[in-house]
Amino acid sequence: MLTWESLTMQTNEHYAKEAEECLFANYKRAPVAFTHGRGARLFDVEGKSYLDFIGGVAVSSLGHAHPALVRAITHQAERYLHVSNLYQLPEQIRAAQALTRISGLDRVFFCNSGTEANEAALKLARKHAVEHGRGHRILVAENSFHGRTMGALAATGNPAYHKGFEPLPEGFTFLPYNQLAAWQQAMGPDVAAVLVEPIQGEGGVVPGTLEFLHGLELMCRKQGALFMLDEVQTGIGRTGAMLNFHTHGLLPDVVTLAKGLGGGVPVGAVLARAEAAAVLVPGTHGCTFGGNALACAAACVVLEEVEQILPEVELRSRQLVGGLKALPKVKEVRGAGLLLGVELEVEAKPVELACLQQQLMLNAVRSHTLRLAPPLVVTQLDVEEALEILGRVLAG
Ligand SMILES: Cc1ncc(COP(=O)(O)O)c(C=O)c1O
Hints:
It is a single chain. With 396 residues, the protein is an alpha/beta fold. The chain has two domains: 150 residues, Aspartate Aminotransferase, domain 1 (Alpha-Beta Complex); 239 residues, Type I PLP-dependent aspartate aminotransferase-like (Major domain) (Aspartate Aminotransferase, domain 2, 3-Layer(aba) Sandwich). The protein has 15 helices and 17 strands. It has a seven-stranded mixed sheet, with helices on both faces. A four-stranded mixed sheet has the order 1-2-3-15. It has a four-stranded antiparallel sheet with strand order 13-14-17-16. Pyridoxal-5'-phosphate binds next to helix 6.
């Protein structure tokens, strides 16, 4: 077991070198290794303290070492971690009840990640189409991101991510985000579903317009195709509402979730209307770890806590947006709640690296765009300090 003493005997560089020798090289990792965190702060093996304004990429909704979350997963681990979906799981039922209450949707399928949630949604859409005599085509957006497994990758509108992995499952039509007319033209009886993010996260934090999202919903309703929203990044309080679609008054048939739902414990979910969910009968889909007791104990606490802090999220969002807009070299601030994209006049990567040097963690999501997704429990002082560091870096 890695003890505090053994962790701190080594430097950040030491861990970076060890990682290179034993891990796949599929990530570009910064040479920083952490011992622990509290709230929106992390501490590295050399004793330096960082402000975490990326939150494990919109995952650490309750910040680090949140007492209620720690208590819940410790308590669950002491009873049992996993018994499989062959049996009744009270923790899974509680998490599903919370999600159906919050969303207004009827049924929940649990998995472990965003890509798995989208994979299940895509299968649901195909099966639903077969049973309703529709074609199998799925309309998706250019510049979108839905995950890295074959189906979700095929739905992802970024050709760079496809390269080298073809052939991918066919039947996806890519259309320009926020341009409703193109989607209306592409719609027909051969379309099973539309799948979009209400705010494109990896695409640079690009919000869908009200007109676009409502137009898609209406078009799907008229045609009998499923309207599916990928809220993997935007869900669970991230944008100031429990689910982003609430802010637009949308009524999706299917919603996918992951990231913030477990507050750092891997958990994904698909929410659906009962009629749509019903197509996945026994034997059509499954997931060994999906909805296990540990994951669902975490999700229950996250849902409970996040609902209570939504007004705070809105306040911190306003503080952050106002502060960001006043910084030098900032062209635009986009997004909602605590999922913000900052369009810069300069390249974003050097800014990300300079901020890390100054112990502020954020992420260059596009060539000129920074992404900020701090824990939802971030404090007023944390935001002040982060703005001060970023301001210093941008002015320098
Ligand atoms: C909107 C969206 N969908 C799906 C995914 C994939 O999630 P995961 O990495 O958990 O598979 C992501 C991850 O960034 C995402 O932002």
